[in-house]
Amino acid sequence: MKKLKRSSRLVEMTHYLLSRPHQLIPLTTFAERYNSAKSSISEDLVIIKEVVEQEGIGELNTVAGAAGGVKYMPKMSEQAAIAFVESICEELRQPDRILPGGYLYMSDILGQPSILNEIGRMFATVFANCEADCIMTVETKGIPLAHATASFLNLPVIIVRSDNKVTEGSAVSINYVSGSNKRIQTMSLSRRALKEESKVLIIDDFMRAGGTIQGMKDLLKEFNASVSGVGVFVESGEVDDLLIEDYVSLAKLSGVDSKTKQVIVGPGSYFQQ
């Protein structure tokens, strides 16, 4: 790359870092990329670090030594997180979201890139140090949430399906009890999708009793894999006998009254961390 003015280099370096979260980048990479001395690059990184952390959009961590470098870790400030979740809760309280059977319509929310982006940043904040090798979700509504989170943690996404697809090759399938309707259901994962003894972060859109998430945890045992964290967008507060205990929710749905058209929803366990 040709030698840039410092102002242009700062912009380009910031973009380079933001597009490679949780990736250790040696100073020599920048020095060679911009044809600049390491001392100049170090000064630039100090400026970027100051702005990134002051604006609450992440941290810039420096690792010393020959194998060291700099790593950008996306974060969301608590103040920004509270404001975002409150806006989501306000949207979920709209009476026209109530469906027959007391269900809540959320598909439009999970289809907006700007909202998914903030959800992914929140999960990336709370699970920044979980040391996961990949993110797992179950088809279908959890997929955009998993990918949004993966974009900030720089991790691959593994999708658990309800049946085995020919294009997936040989697979491991298990039966599990759905927490919502107590029915026996099946989930399947390709043998090639997950390496043995992987550390997995589970992300899902909604959790009632936790049956689906428990099913994924049981499926992971077939791969000798472990769970490094569980995050859900909305959890139900109407269930007493939860099947899982250690999880993080962004919002908590405490009640839906179809007669009065009232939805009771508030911030989840994210803010108790």
Describe the protein in words.
Residues 108-253 form the Phosphoribosyltransferase domain. It holds the Pfam family Pribosyltran. InterPro entries: PRTase-like, PRTase_dom, Pur/Pyrimidine_PRTase, PuR_N, PurR_Bsub, WH-like_DNA-bd_sf, WH_DNA-bd_sf. This is Pur operon repressor. The chain folds into two domains: 6-74, Orthogonal Bundle (Arc Repressor Mutant, subunit A); 78-272, Rossmann fold (3-Layer(aba) Sandwich), CATH 3.40.50. Helices cover 33% and strands 27% of the residues. The chain has helices spanning 6-18, 27-34, 38-54, 78-92, 113-126, 142-153, 211-221; strands at 58-63, 69-74, 98-99, 103-104, 134-138, 157-160, 171-177, 184-190, 199-207, 226-236, 248-257, 262-267. Helix 7 (211-221) links the parallel strand 9 (199-207) and strand 10. Helix 1 crosses helix 3 and helix 5 (113-126) packs across helix 6 (142-153). The protein is globular and about 65 Å long.
